Amino acid sequence: MGKYFGTDGFRGEANINLTADHAYKVGRFLGWYFNQERKKNGLEGPARIVIGKDTRRSSYMFEYTLVGGLVASGADAYLLHVTTTPSVAYIARMDEFDCGIMISASHNPYYDNGIKLINSKGEKMDEETILKIEEYLDGDTEVPFANKNEIGCTVDYVSGRNRYIGYLISLGVYSFKGMTVALDCANGSSWNIAKAVFDALGAKTLVINNTPDGFNINNNAGSTHIEGLQKFVVEHNCDIGFAYDGDADRCLCVDEKGNVVTGDHILYVYGRYMKDRGKLITNTVVTTVMSNFGLYKAFDELDIGYAKTKVGDKYVYEYMKENGCRIGGEQSGHIIFSKYASTGDGILTSLKMMEVMLAKKMKMSELCEGFTMYPQVLVNVRVKDKKEAQNDPDVMKAVQDVADKLGDSGRILVRESGTEPLIRVMVEAETHEICQNYVDEVVKVIKNKGHQA
Question: Which of 46, 166, 184, 351 makes the best surface tag, with the fewest CB within 10 Å?
Answer without folding.
Answer: 166
